Amino acid sequence: MDIYNFIKQNIKKFDGLDYRPDNEYGMARVNKKTLGKFSDELAGEVLLVYAAVRSKAYSLRIKGKNPIKKVKEVKSRVVKKRLCF
Description:
Largest sheet: 3 strands, antiparallel
Number of domains: 2
Number of helices: 2
Distance between the termini: 28 Å
């Protein structure tokens, strides 16, 4: 199943504002930050890897960008130096 085709078919349930106007998926930019709508948190970017220990400790890699590492209540320099991903 292609998730972007699913979103286009059910656009009334999604927030499409974060997509670029010339996005490659042809996604409509509707439902501007409306409460109760689902949103694509990566705005159409490709998620390659996601690893989570719990809700406040996770890491993800997005195509063409540096990895994002988040751990609640741990200093950012410790996360940057010690957490390997």
